[in-house]
Batch of 4 targets.
Target 1
Amino acid sequence: MSSMQRKVILDCDPGIDDAVALCLGLAAEEFDVLAVTGVEGCVSADQANRNVQYLLSQLDPAKWPRIGSASHADDAPAVDTRYLHGDDGLGNVGSTTAAPHHPHPSEKLIGDLVRAYPNQVTIIALGPTTNIARAFRRDPGLEGLVDRLIVMGGAVDGVGNITANAEFNVHFDPGSARHVLASRTTKTLIPLDVTRQVQWTLDLLEQLPDVGSRLGRLLRRMLPFAYRSYRQRLGQECILLNDAVALMAALEPDLFSTEGMAGDVEVSGELARGMVLFDRRHPQEWRANMEVAREVDVERLRERFVTRLRRAAVFFRD
Ligand code: RIB
Ligand code: CA
C-alpha cells in the first residue's frame, strides 16, 4: 500500500449508481478505503446493509474495508425508488446475502476512524448525510478533524429530482444535510447540475469489462435494469450515474471546475423541503461555506471512467 494513498470512507445507500461508485472507489490505487458505511436513503437501512455486504462479497477486494451499518433515519419521507433501482436497489440482482450479525453502527465507525486518523480521512457521501451528522452530534470535535468531505447532493439551479426543487439525498434527511453543510469541515458539494451533465448512452454496456471478470459480471447484472427503467419510466435512452460522477470528482478533480459558495438547506418548507439555497446576491451576505462543482469535462470523464473500470476488473481478480 502506497503512503500516498488517501484514507477514504465511502458512505452509501446502494443504489445502482452507488454500487458503480463503490466499484471505482474500492479499486482506485489513489485510495485506501478504510470503511464502507451504509446509510438509509434510496433503499431501507436493512437493504443498504445487505447491499454493502453483497457488493463487497461479489468484488472480494484483496483488502476488505470495515463495514458500517445503517439504521433508520428520523423523519424520513416515504419514498419509493424501486422503479429506478429495482426491488433490491441493485437492479434485481437476486442477492440472498444477509446483513452482518454484529453490526457496527456507521456513525460510530466514522467517528472512530476520523479520531484514529485525524486530518487524514476523506469521507465521500453518496447518500443522505445522516451518518455524518450523527457522528458530528456524538462528537462535535470531529468536524475539525475530517480532511475533506465530498457530498453528492443538492442542485444549484434549483431543479430537483425527487421534488420540483430538491435533490434526493438532501430531501431524504434535510436536517442532517443542514448540520453537515454548516459544519466547519472542509467540504465539496457535487450537485445534480453537474452529475446530470454526464449522460450515459447504451454504448456504455459495450465498453464494460468483459464477463470473464467479477466486475464485468456484476455490472452486467445491474446496469441493464437502469437502462430499461429510464426508458420505460422516464422515456430516456440515457442513464445518470450521479454517485459515480461524484466519486470521479474525488479521483479526478482536474476534470471539474469548482466555486466557493454559501449554501444552506430548507428543512421545513411545505414545498421546498430539502432544497439547497445558495446566496448568489451581489454583494453576497452569507459567508462561503463550501466548494461547489459547477462544470465537468464530460468527454474526458467518460474516457477516464471506462479506463478505470477496465483497470478495476484486473484489480478484482477471480
Ligand atoms: O439524487 C441522486 C442521488 O439519489 C444519488 O445518490 C442516488 O443514488 C440517489 O440516492
Ligand atoms: Ca446514492
Target 2
Amino acid sequence: MLQVKNISFSYNKKAVIENVSFSVGVGEHVSIIGESGSGKSTLLKLLYGTYDLNEGQIFWKGHEILGPKHNLVVGPEFMKYVAQEFDLMPFISVSENVGAFLSNFYPEEKQARIKELLEVVELLDDANTKVKNLSGGQKQRVALARAIAKQPEILLLDEPFSHIDNFKKQSLRRSLFKYLKEKNIACIVATHDKDDVLSFSDQMIVLHEAKIMANNTPKHLYENPQNKLIASFFGESNNLNDLGIVYAHQLKVVDKSDLKAIVKTSYYKGSYYLIEADLDGERVFFEHPNTIENGLQICLSVL
Ligand code: ADP
Ligand code: MG
C-alpha cells in the first residue's frame, strides 16, 4: 500500500502541496484532478521521489520513498513514472525503445513481451518505425509501453492520453487500464478528463489550492458534488439558489413551474442540445432534445 502522510512541498515560498495525506492499495487505481496549476504534476513527482519534501513521509509497502538528498538515482525500482513530457530515444525503433530496459538473456521471451506491450498500446504496426518519425500521440504510447515493460508495482501517469486523438483514446484507455488491473499494478493518474476517471478509477482525489478538497469514489463525487468546481469537472452544471448544484441533464422543460428562464442559445451536442438560458439574471444550462427559439420563456424543473 502507498501511504502519503502529511506531505508539504514548495518550489519557492508558496506551498504547492500542503499537508496532503492519502493512501492507495495494491492494484488500486486513483485519479488526481484539479485545475491547471493546482499541483497535480508536482504531487506525482513527489511520489516518485523527484524532490525532497518539506514535511511528511511517503511509503510503499513500508519502504520509504526519499528525495534526491538521499538517493543517487531518482525513482524506486518498483515504480514507473510517465511525465507530461516523455523522453524517448529518437533514433531507434519503437520495439527497441520498449525493450531498452528488458533483459537480453532470453531473446525470444523478450520479443514476445515487446509484442504483448505493443498490443496493449496498439502500436504493433509501428514496431519497426524510428521514434523520431512518430506523432506526439504515438510517442506517448511508446512511453506508456516502456513504463509497464518491467511490470512496476505502481505506475504514475501524468495526463497519459493528452496527445492522443479521440479516434484512439477510448480503446487505448480501456486496453491500458484493463491490462493494469489484470496485472494488479496500482496506478495514479493526473488528469483533467472525466473519461479517465469515471469508468476506471477506484478513488478520485480533488486538489485545490495545494490541499485535498475531496477524496472519494468517482461515483460518490459525481452524485454528490459538494461544490461547483467538482461538478464542473464532470459536466455542465448550475448552482441554483434553492436547489444547490444541478447538472444540465437533470433540468427538464415542463409546462408549469416557478423556475422561469429565457432561452439565449442552443448548442448542438450530438445526442442532445445544450440550452443556455437566463434565469433572473443568472446563466442556467439544461439539456433538451431539440433547439429552442431564442427569447422564448420556458419553465424548468429538476428531474
Ligand atoms: P498541474 O500539474 O496541476 O497543472 P503543477 O504541479 O505543474 O500543476 O504546478 C503547480 C504550481 O507549481 C504552479 O503554480 C506552477 O507554476 C508551479 N511550478 C511547477 N513546477 C515548478 C518548478 N519547477 N519551479 C517552480 N514552480 C513550479
Ligand atoms: Mg501538470
Target 3
Amino acid sequence: MERLQKILAQAGVASRRKCEELILAGKVQVNGETVTVLGTKADPATDTITVNGKNIGAEQKLYLLFNKPKGVITSASDPQGRKIVTDYLKGIKERVYPVGRLDYDTEGLLLLTNDGEFAHLLTHPKHHVPKTYLATVMGVPHGNDLDKLKQGIMLEDGMTAPAEVEYHDVNPDNKQAVISITIHEGRNRQVRRMFEAIGHPVIRLKRIAFGKLYLGTMKRGVYRHLTKSEVESLRQSAAAARKNDQP
Ligand code: URA
C-alpha cells in the first residue's frame, strides 16, 4: 500500500504537489469512491485508480534517452512556435516529459519519462546525480582557472559545489578549447556561467553523461528506450548521491 499522491506521481499524472491538489479537488477515485483525504493509501496493483475518470494504471512507464540538437526547447509546448523535444518522439503516444532541462542552445543527453517519481528522484537538488558536459570555450583556460572551477566558484546565486574538470582537446591555434566538466548540481545555465566567471565563454555545450549513462554515438535528434538495468543504475546514482550528502 502506498499513499495515493505517491502512486499518482509515480504514474506520471503530475508532480506530487499537483497530485495532492487533484485529490483535494475531488478528481481522484479509488475503486469508484472519490477520495479527498490526503495520505489515503491504495495498492496500485489491485485498486482501480482514476483521475478525472481516466484509469491511471493503463499507461506503461517509459524511459527515453534523447540526443537533443541545439535550437530545440526542453519544454512540452512553446508559445513562440519553436521546435520542442517531443516533436522528435515519433511513435510515442504516452505523455512523456523531460527530466530536468537543457538550454535551447545546449545539445546532448536528455532523459524523458512519464514516471513522475523517477523524474523527481533524478532532479531533486539533494540527490546531486553527476552530469558531464563537453564545453567548447573561447580561448584556452589556464590550469589555475580550471582549479577554480574544480574547487567551486562564486556565481551570483552562490558558490558552486566542487566539480571534476579536465582538458579534452585544445585547438592548435589556441583560440578554443574543449573542456570536460562534471557538475553535481543543476542550477540555471550553470556550466555557461561557470566558464563566463573565469573569462572563457562557452561557444558550444553538449551533455554527454547523466550518472553512469553515456550518450555514446547516438545521432542528433534520435531517441532510444533505456534498458531496465540503465533505469536501475540511474536510480542507484540518485540514492548513492543522497547518501554521500548525509553528514
Ligand atoms: N549548464 C548550462 O549552462 N546549460 C545547460 O543546458 C546545462 C547545464
Target 4
Amino acid sequence: MSKILIIEDEEAIAELEKDYLELSGFEVEVEDNGTTGLARALSEDFDLFILDLMLPGIDGFEICRQIRDKKNTPILMVSARKDDIDKIRGLGLGADDYITKPFSPSELVARVKAHLARYERLIGDGLPQNDVIEIRGLKIDKTARRVWVNDEEKTLTTKEFDLLTFLASNPNHVYTKDELFKEIWDMESVGDIATVTVHIKKIREKIEYDSSKPQYIETIWGVGYRFKI
Ligand code: CA
C-alpha cells in the first residue's frame, strides 16, 4: 500500500485530503507544521508528499528543496494562490505537480494516482538493483563485489572484501577480533586473530585517506573494531 505524507496546517483541508486518499486505498499521515513535517519526510519512507506552501515552522518552498536534495519521491504542492504556483515553477524546486485551493478531492486523488504510477514505472525500470552500501565517499557494491572511494575503484582481496562488507553492513557494532575471525574465516582454517589485524591494516591502506586516522573502521582499544557511521 502506498504511503502518503500530507504536510498541511489547515486541519479541515488536511482531513479532507486524508479521507479521500484513504477511501482510495492509501495509507495517509498528516503533519500540521513545517518542522516536524520536514523531519518525517527526510527520515521516513513515503511514496508521495502533499505539501502546503504556507506553513508554520518551515515553509513549503524550503521543505520541497530539502526533500529534493535527498529523495526523488513525488511532491505535489498545494497553494491558495495561483501566483505562488508560478513562483514554485520559477524557482525550479523540483516539485512534480501543483494544485490550487480550492480543488476537488477527486482531482487530487487522480493526480496522486498518476504520480505514483509514473514514479513506480521510473524506479521499476531496468535490471534489479545491486545491493550497495554508500557511506561518506565509500561505496561497496555487495552484488558485484567491488569497492570505490570517491569514485576511484579499489582492489580488495576476497577476505578483505568480506571483512569490510561485514563491518559496514553492521555499522556502530563493536566486534572483537575473535568474533571477526570466526565470521570471516572458517573455524577450521589456519590462522589466528592476528590475521584480522593484518587484514584491517590492509583495508585501511586501501580505503582510508590517512590510515593513522581512520574515518571508517575504528579501533576500540582492548575490544576490537567497529565501522563508524
Ligand atoms: Ca497553510
